[in-house]
């Protein structure tokens, strides 16, 4: 290009940018009239995945992007930002509905296998979505967890291809050198971490007194201590990172992916997308409204609509738009645009069980005298409330003034993700799985294609029961509790609409424990929690089970205890699964909705099988990979 031509070219580019910036000032809006008539991309949902995708698409200044989010921003309340009390905004385990203004406050229908209990299903109604509500654990599953996705018919969706996208989202801070030097077995490998991403991951600067005992207990039980579980080897015990900004010791959320200074990015808060409009198989735009009694508005889209409403609401939007199982839609008087039976099916979740304990810790950490700490501190699994109000006030003041002490961390530093071989009679479980009719325990009205997809998943679940690298249960370690959690459930549920009003809540039927293999795995997890308590390492601090205690001893009593107390980690996935259409899939490997042009889904609903890990780090990588798939030229 000649010099004069090059100068002319750059002037044209600059002029176009000026025109775009004047016509399209980046801003946060809360009124429908302020929305432009047309955008290149409309992102439905301003949660984790939606903000990542919108951020990456709007990196091109010539591309216009609108995010529509039902909630708003937080006010940075302590119970949102401070790590120890960070889960105080979701329902307490076993204490009934509570929630917060940042939660959809939804509850599943009564569950037959849980003595007809209804279980809360928290989901973020806020900019940042679940990253505002979660407990901030930032970990990944094993390589085999993600390689399963490719095995199910999704080329390139494997750990090796996801790793660069995991790293792209992450801003990792290594542990304090003193923790490494003091023999805490805390290590990391920089090859598995990113240091230029938007979401922070860091190790807590405070170490709970019982952590060293848990480490010793794992060694006593021949459980491997993983150097860095972020690298695809996550079957064992390890220190976990938190999504916490180590400079401020406060929660790091996907809000940090929002770039309000970009003139090509709009964010509409307080509005819900009620329908995706499709004509002749192609998306034309979306309808949205501020509420049931407000007039609906419409915005056109020239490129694509990206659904990121989450595993509980994405199927609702699809069904309201005429995408779903024809008989179900017809029963509600909705015209079928695409007969896609998989919409809303394949729901599954991580579930956990609280078991309480007491003991005596004599360790010191962070130069704080912590003798008998767990006798003066009572931490519930979700709220972080302290019973000793004077001590609590002192520690909160320490956090506020110096960003030190127990408020900088969750209720624990270290946990384990274990394969079945460590927990139970693997042969008996494998035999029970092999003898089970493959899809016998699915709902009787499960569509044939969904049933076929489950059979493919069931095959993987049963074969991996004997794997030493595939974790099936998590063990969350705290001073006051051990919580076994099921991470490879065999049970499957559904999310569906029973009304044509987009403002009615969808029907969530998790069908927890509907497959008896899940109950057997929970019983094994409960017993293993007792095995951990009985190690020499834990008995050194006189650890004693206080709940349920000796009243629950036989297998039948344990099963009843599980049914009465099982709760959710609110890691909902699968309701718009990335699977072939013949296996009940809703999206293809490029996350395009089967049978529709210009509509993709990027959120937890596309995950076909849960990894054995808390979900946020996985979803950041998924959303980063999705953005590259959507960008023109990739």
From TrEMBL:
<comment type="similarity">
    <text>Belongs to the GMC oxidoreductase family.</text>
</comment>
<dbReference type="GO" id="GO:0050660">
    <property type="term" value="F:flavin adenine dinucleotide binding"/>
</dbReference>
<keyword id="KW-0732">Signal</keyword>
<feature type="binding site">
    <location>
        <position position="273"/>
    </location>
    <ligand>
        <name>FAD</name>
    </ligand>
</feature>
<dbReference type="Pfam" id="PF00732">
    <property type="entry name" value="GMC_oxred_N"/>
</dbReference>
<dbReference type="InterPro" id="IPR000172">
    <property type="entry name" value="GMC_OxRdtase_N"/>
</dbReference>
<dbReference type="InterPro" id="IPR007867">
    <property type="entry name" value="GMC_OxRtase_C"/>
</dbReference>
<feature type="active site" description="Proton acceptor">
    <location>
        <position position="614"/>
    </location>
</feature>
<feature type="domain" description="Glucose-methanol-choline oxidoreductase N-terminal">
    <location>
        <begin position="310"/>
        <end position="324"/>
    </location>
</feature>
<dbReference type="GO" id="GO:0044550">
    <property type="term" value="P:secondary metabolite biosynthetic process"/>
</dbReference>
<dbReference type="Pfam" id="PF05199">
    <property type="entry name" value="GMC_oxred_C"/>
</dbReference>
<keyword id="KW-0285">Flavoprotein</keyword>
<keyword id="KW-0274">FAD</keyword>
<feature type="binding site">
    <location>
        <begin position="134"/>
        <end position="137"/>
    </location>
    <ligand>
        <name>FAD</name>
    </ligand>
</feature>
<feature type="active site" description="Proton donor">
    <location>
        <position position="571"/>
    </location>
</feature>
<protein>
    <submittedName>
        <fullName>Dehydrogenase xptC</fullName>
    </submittedName>
</protein>
<feature type="binding site">
    <location>
        <position position="126"/>
    </location>
    <ligand>
        <name>FAD</name>
    </ligand>
</feature>
<dbReference type="InterPro" id="IPR012132">
    <property type="entry name" value="GMC_OxRdtase"/>
</dbReference>
<dbReference type="InterPro" id="IPR036188">
    <property type="entry name" value="FAD/NAD-bd_sf"/>
</dbReference>
<dbReference type="GO" id="GO:0016614">
    <property type="term" value="F:oxidoreductase activity, acting on CH-OH group of donors"/>
</dbReference>
<feature type="domain" description="Glucose-methanol-choline oxidoreductase N-terminal">
    <location>
        <begin position="124"/>
        <end position="147"/>
    </location>
</feature>
<feature type="signal peptide">
    <location>
        <begin position="1"/>
        <end position="23"/>
    </location>
</feature>
């Amino acid at each position: 290009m000649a010099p004069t031509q090059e100068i002319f070219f750059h002037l044209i580019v600059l002029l176009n940018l000026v025109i775009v910036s004047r016509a399209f000032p980046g801003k946060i809006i809360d009124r429908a009239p302020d929305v432009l008539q047309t955008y290149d991309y409309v992102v439905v949902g301003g949660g984790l995945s939606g903000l990542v995708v919108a951020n990456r698409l709007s990196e091109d200044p010539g591309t216009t992007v609108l995010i529509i989010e039902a909630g708003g921003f937080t006010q940075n309340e302590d119970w949102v930002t401070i790590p120890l009390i960070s889960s105080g905004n979701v329902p307490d385990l076993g204490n009934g509905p509570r929630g917060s203004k940042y939660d959809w406050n939804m509850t599943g229908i009564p569950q037959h296998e849980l003595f007809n209990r209804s279980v809360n299903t928290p989901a973020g109604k806020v900019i940042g979505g679940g990253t505002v509500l979660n407990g901030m654990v930032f970990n990944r599953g094993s390589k085999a967890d993600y390689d399963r996705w490719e095995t199910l018919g999704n080329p390139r969706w494997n750990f090796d291809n996801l790793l660069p996208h995991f790293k792209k989202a992450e801003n990792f801070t290594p542990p304090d050198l003193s923790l490494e030097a003091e023999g805490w077995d805390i290590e990391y490998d920089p090859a598995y971490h990113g240091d230029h991403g938007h979401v922070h991951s860091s190790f807590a600067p405070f170490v709970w007194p019982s952590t060293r005992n848990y480490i010793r207990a794992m060694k006593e039980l021949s459980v491997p201590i993983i150097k860095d579980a972020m690298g695809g080897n996550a079957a064992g015990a390890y220190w976990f990172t938190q999504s916490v900004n180590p400079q401020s010791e406060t929660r790091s959320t996907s809000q940090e992916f929002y770039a309000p200074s970009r003139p090509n990015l709009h964010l509409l808060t307080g509005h819900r997308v009620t329908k995706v409009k499709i004509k002749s198989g192609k998306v034309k735009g979306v309808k949205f409204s501020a509420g049931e009694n407000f007039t609906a508005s419409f915005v056109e889209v020239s490129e694509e609509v990206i659904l990121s409403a989450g595993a509980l609401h994405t199927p609702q939007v699809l069904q309201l738009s005429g995408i779903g199982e024809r008989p179900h839609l017809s029963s509600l008087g909705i015209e079928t645009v695409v007969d896609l039976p998989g919409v809303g099916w394949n729901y599954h979740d991580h579930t956990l069980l609280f078991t309480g304990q007491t003991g005596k810790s004599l360790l010191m950490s962070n130069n704080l005298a912590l003798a008998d700490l767990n006798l003066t501190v009572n931490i519930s699994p979700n709220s972080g409330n302290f019973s000793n109000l004077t001590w609590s006030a002192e520690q909160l003041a320490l956090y506020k003034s110096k960003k030190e002490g127990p408020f900088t961390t969750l209720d624990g530093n270290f946990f384990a993700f274990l394969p079945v071989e460590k927990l139970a009679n693997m042969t008996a479980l494998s035999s029970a799985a092999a003898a089970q009719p493959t899809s016998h325990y699915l709902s009787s009205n499960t569509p044939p294609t969904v049933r076929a997809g489950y059979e493919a998943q069931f095959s993987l679940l049963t074969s991996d029961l004997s794997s030493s690298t595939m974790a099936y249960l998590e063990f969350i370690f705290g001073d006051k509790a051990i919580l076994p959690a099921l991470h490879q459930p065999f049970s499957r549920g559904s999310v569906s609409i029973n009304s044509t009003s987009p403002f009615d809540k969808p029907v969530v039927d998790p069908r927890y424990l509907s497959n008896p293999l899940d109950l057997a795995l929970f019983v094994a997890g409960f017993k293993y929690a007792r095995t951990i308590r009985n190690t020499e390492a834990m008995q050194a601090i006189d650890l004693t089970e206080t709940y349920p205690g000796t009243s629950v001893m036989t297998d039948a009593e344990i099963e009843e205890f599980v049914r009465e107390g099982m709760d959710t980690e609110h890691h909902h996935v699968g309701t718009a699964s990335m699977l072939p259409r013949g296996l009940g899939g809703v999206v293809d490997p490029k996350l395009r909705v089967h049978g529709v042009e210009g509509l993709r889904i990027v959120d937890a609903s596309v995950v076909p099988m849960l990894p054995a890990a808390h979900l946020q780090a996985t979803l950041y990588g998924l959303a980063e990979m999705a953005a590259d798939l959507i960008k023109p030229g990739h």
